[in-house]
Fold this protein.
Amino acid sequence: MAASAAVALVAVGVCAAAFVIIRHQMTRQLDLSLAQTAAQVTQQSRGWGPTVGDTSCRFQAVPCVQIVPSDPAEDPAKPYALRVTDATRQVAAGQHAPYYSKLTVVGQEMRMFTTRLPGKHEALQVALRSDTVQRGVRQAAWALSAVGGAGVLLAAGLGYWVSRSGLAPVTRLTATAERIAATRDARHRIELPPGPPGREDEVTRLATSFNTMLGELEQSIAAQRRLVADASHELRTPLTALRTNAELLARADRLTDAQRDRASAALGRQLREVTQLVNDLIELARDEEPQPLVEQVRPADLAAHAVRAARGHWPQIAFQDHFAAETEAVALPGVPARISRLLTNLLDNAAKFSPPGGPVEVELTAYSGALELTVRDHGPGIAAEDLPYVFDRFYRAEAARALPGSGLGLAMARQIARAHSADLTAEQAPGGGALFRLSFPAAG
Ligand SMILES: Nc1ncnc2c1ncn2[C@@H]1O[C@H](COP(=O)(O)OP(=O)(O)OP(=O)(O)O)[C@@H](O)[C@H]1O
Ligand SMILES: [Mg+2]
């Protein structure tokens, strides 16, 4: 509607302007030929030609010429054919500038030019029929109205066509968005017009990014469903074991003391494991680091603290730390508790998979502002086929199934690393064992 109205307005405006110009030009033409005739008559009146009272208004296409003296006493006996007013006398007397006027003579529309004959006290009046001009102006008005009307109709048609073809993708986009809102199903996509990518219009680009957004949404919904499914599956086994032990203890009168102690110890351990698992799940489900907890942290301090804690926790493992001197001062924004958690998970794994007494090397190096922390053990290492999966939730390599754990440690570690824009990777250490590499980008 707006586009049509704009185009229609322009069409009508252009026609109106053309009409005004045509009318002006035609009147000017008439005025010019009047002035020309007046000049000719002035030339002729030096020797011969019309004198006072002479009128020659009998013919249609011929200019009608009349000479009027300034003094009414000198008027001829015959009446004037063209109208004579005070202004005419003033022009004759030289007190008034030449002028153009309109008048009607025997029912004919005429345009008249009144000027002074030089050197005489007489005014020269030249009149021409203006009905031809008026007819021309009327014809032009009709023609222009027709053109303007056609322009308006064309604008309406074009506007309709543009809105149908140009806005159709928007309609499709709206419909898809409404369908998703109604069904809560992010699998819908907007159909894109065929054609090579890169040459699309804005609407197609909008639809493309809408589709991309839907893809992301679908993936994130799928990931959430998977997490819930995995979590409930993982919880089932320890809960079954818990129930068995609880049922066993309910009939404690039939058990020996030793059996009862064993069952209650197992119950306590399983409860701790389930609690840990649930806590890990809650932390994993939290995506972003809570902003108020972000502060400037020194990874070197956190690493030193984590190694100290691990030594207390795993007395049989020889933790060796090498922190480069230039790493001491490096600080970056982060949540200290979460980074500590990441480090603890790595150190726990290293200790868990190390042979008793085996060394675990923790190294911290800095190069041009970027920090890199490596944790290396001398255990069985990670098989090449497991490497791509160790960071998945609940993934545990075949060999690790006998050891305690739920397979959430590395998933959480990578999530924390990502939240701090750091990179966490695993590889096989040269000479056996696993090597985890955590690299923080250069600050700023
Ligand atoms: N240092 C390591 N040496 C050998 N294998 C490892 C090492 N660290 C991790 N893995 C492998 O990666 C898997 C996933 O590790 P992750 O820390 O996520 O789980 P977990 O240690 O089994 O359980 P959790 O940490 O939740 O108690 C492990 O089960 C193991 O197969
Ligand atoms: Mg672990």
Summary: The longest strand covers residues 108-116. The pocket of adenosine-5'-triphosphate (ligand 1) is lined by residues 345, 349-350, 353, 377, 379-382, 390, 395-397, 400, 405-411, 434 (CB under 6 Å).
